[in-house]
UniProtKB/TrEMBL annotation:
InterPro entries: RCC1/BLIP-II, Reg_chr_condens, Signaling_Regulatory_Domain
A Pfam family the protein falls into: RCC1
Keywords: Repeat
Protein name, entry field: Retinitis pigmentosa gtpase regulator b
Domain of life from the UniProt record: Eukaryota
Placement of RCC repeats on the sequence: 37-88, 89-140
Signal peptide bounds: none
PANTHER family to which the protein is assigned, alphabetical: BTK-BINDING PROTEIN-RELATED (PTHR22872), INHIBITOR OF BRUTON TYROSINE KINASE (PTHR22872:SF2)
Transmembrane segments: none
Length: 189
């Protein structure tokens, strides 16, 4: 995620400097200004993981036009999918969905542009993408997990794949509020 400000990026290991315009665009509203954050992505585009509407790799930062009207708060890159969190607490996902890591219909094996994750009942304040699983923490401290659970990474105590229903880990031994979650390849901290 970028914010609007001209920066002189130091040498990139290629012997030259590059000037980038960052990701908050200035929006004028009634005499005052407001900065808008947006997603600029680059690298491997397989399965639409960049959310740019195509599978091509991008060699320079490219703005995700599908989310240009959303004020983004956070982005998290998983194995072959990406999660986006808006300031309004809505979650979007793009890329590979073979284990339900996008939180969308299992009929879609991948998506080229971000789609809103269904079934999250309240405002989300944090997202984190694992290799084939995803997580979200709500404003009330509830942790939701979905996707591949082959090694127990969803915290359900059994192996299954969750596409649309999210595991709510707020009950039982989880009597504390979730503050931070960090998924790895087949584990969660």
């Amino acid at each position: 995620m970028w914010r609007q400000k001209l920066k002189n990026v130091s040498k990139l290991g290629l012997g030259f400097s590059r000037r980038w315009i960052s990701s908050e665009k200035q929006q004028q509203e009634g005499g005052g200004g407001r900065r808008k954050k947006f997603a600029a992505l680059w690298g491997n585009g397989d399965y639409g993981r960049l959310g740019l509407g195509k599978v091509d790799s991008q060699w320079t930062p490219t703005i995700c036009s599908a989310l240009e009207n959303q004020n983004l708060k956070a982005i998290s890159c998983g194995g072959a999918h990406t999660l986006f969190l808006t300031e309004a607490g809505r979650v979007y996902a793009t890329g590979l969905n073979d284990f339900g890591q996008l939180g969308i219909s299992p009929e879609k094996s991948y998506t080229l542009e971000p789609l809103e994750v269904s079934g999250l009942p309240e405002e989300v304040i944090r997202v984190s993408a694992g290799y084939h699983h995803s997580s979200a923490i709500t404003a009330n401290g509830v942790l939701y997990m979905w996707g591949n659970n082959s090694s127990g990474q969803l915290g359900l105590g059994k192996s299954l794949i969750l596409h649309l229903s999210k595991s709510d880990l707020s009950g039982g031994p989880w009597w504390w509020d979730a503050v931070l979650v960090t998924p790895g390849i087949s584990r969660v901290c």
